[in-house]
């Protein structure tokens, strides 16, 4: 991982400490909201119980998500303040590997934060970042949270929404979009409404979806099979069982 903080790699909680530093730095840069710190803490607790690893059912979800992104008419990766702080370059790579658009879409929307995140993604190699025009609306939500680009999330048939708020995940689903959700809580409303719930830490999930996308690219039959063979209910149940019954080593 990057060398942007001084955490010794030998530390048993190296990844978790690095992740915290990135979220803190995100707040300092005006990218991540202060609520993002709380969301991260909640995520960490679930990740600890999962054994801080990608369980097999999450890997299958990541493969199905890659297949959806590749076979979509118009796929969009929604980026909030936590996702941008944790995996900016990895999101840009995923967009490139799948042909998806990147759109900044915030729960606590401010123009300053939208601009700061778009700039941060550009610094990490993004050529185009949507979300700044905000000329579309998600029906059924209050004004600020409902803002999307009409030719971005507004037009998408498949949307990847990491660490999303439940209300908005539900509203996007009601617009008929296929939702791919990354959320460490298998019982969150976002995970429950997702066609593909990825119960994994975003720092492991995004690079793994990219790897699957590279393997599935150009193979329509394999993409179709990855989508059809994936069972969202059993993935959620498997993650919950692992969290409740898993061994803490
Ligand atoms: O940047 P904004 O304004 O769009 O705000 C983003 C947050 C995340 C603050 C906002 O969407 C929010 O308040 O989300 P919630 O309702 O706290 O939900 C966040 C979910 O993400 C929780 O279920 C956490 O368990 C989960 N989560 C937190 N960190 C991670 C995570 N899932 C995967 N990887 C993580 N690193």
Give structural notes:
This protein is an alpha/beta fold. The chain has one domain (56-244): Phosphopantoate/pantothenate synthetase (Rossmann fold, 3-Layer(aba) Sandwich). It is 53% helix and 10% strand. The chain has eleven helices and seven strands. The protein has helices spanning 14-28, 34-50, 56-71, 81-86, 88-98, 111-123, 166-174, 189-193, 202-216, 220-229, 232-245; strands at 75-79, 101-104, 136-137, 147-148, 158-162, 178-182, 196-198. Strands 2-1-5-6-7 form a five-stranded parallel beta sheet, with helices on both faces. The protein has a two-stranded antiparallel ribbon with strand order 3-4. α7 (166-174) links the parallel β5 (158-162) and β6 (178-182). α3 (56-71) packs across α10 (220-229). The longest helix has 17 residues, at 34-50. The chain starts with 13 loop residues before the first helix and ends with a helix. The relative contact order is 0.17. The model has no long low-confidence stretch (mean pLDDT 94). The structure holds ligand PTJ. Residues 33, 35-36, 39-40, 42-43, 46, 80-82, 86, 106-108, 163-165, 182-185, 188, 201-202 line the site of ligand PTJ.
In short:
This protein is α/β, with parallel strands linked by helices and 249 residues long. It has helices at residues 14-28, 34-50, 56-71, 81-86, 88-98, 111-123, 166-174, 189-193, 202-216, 220-229, 232-245, and strands at 75-79, 101-104, 136-137, 147-148, 158-162, 178-182, 196-198.
Count of spatially separate domains: 1
Say what the CATH topology is. Answer: Rossmann fold
Q: Could you say which overall geometry the principal axes of the C-alpha atoms support?
A: globular
Overall strand count:
7
Strand % is 5-15%
Secondary structure tally, helices: 11
Distance between the termini: 24 Å
The CATH C-level class name: Alpha Beta
Largest sheet: 5 strands, parallel
Structural class: alpha/beta
Q: Which ligands occur here? A: ligand PTJ
Q: Specify Rg, calculated over alpha carbons.
A: 17 Å
Strands in their spatial order, largest beta sheet: 2-1-5-6-7
Mean pLDDT: 94
Q: Which regions have little confidence, pLDDT < 50, spanning 5+ residues?
A: none
What is the CATH architecture annotation? 3-Layer(aba) Sandwich
> Helix share of residues?
40-55%
């Amino acid at each position: 991982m990057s060398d942007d903080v001084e955490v010794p790699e030998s530390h048993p909680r190296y990844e978790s400490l690095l992740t915290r530093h990135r979220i803190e730095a995100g707040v300092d840069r005006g990218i991540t909201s202060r609520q993002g710190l709380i969301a991260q803490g909640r995520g960490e607790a679930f990740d600890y119980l999962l054994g801080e690893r990608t369980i097999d059912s999450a890997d299958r979800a990541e493969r199905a998500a890659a297949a959806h992104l590749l076979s979509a008419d118009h796929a969009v990766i929604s980026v909030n303040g936590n996702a941008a702080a944790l995996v900016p370059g990895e999101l840009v790579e995923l967009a490139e590997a799948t042909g998806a658009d990147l759109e900044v879409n915030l729960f606590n929307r401010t123009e300053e934060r939208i601009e700061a995140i778009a700039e941060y993604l550009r610094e990490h190699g993004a050529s185009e970042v949507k979300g700044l025009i905000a000329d579309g609306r998600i029906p059924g939500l209050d004004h600020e949270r409902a803002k999307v680009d009409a030719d971005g999330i507004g037009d998408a048939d498949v949307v990847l929404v990491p660490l999303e708020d439940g209300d908005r995940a539900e509203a996007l689903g009601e617009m008929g979009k296929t939702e791919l959700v990354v959320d460490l809580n298998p019982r969150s409303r976002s995970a429950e409404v997702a066609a593909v719930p990825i119960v994994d830490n975003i720092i492991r999930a995004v690079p793994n979806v990219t790897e699957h996308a590279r393997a599935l690219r150009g193979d329509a039959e394999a993409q179709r099979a990855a989508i059809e063979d994936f069972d969202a209910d059993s993935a959620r149940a498997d993650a919950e069982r692992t969290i409740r019954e898993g061994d803490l080593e």
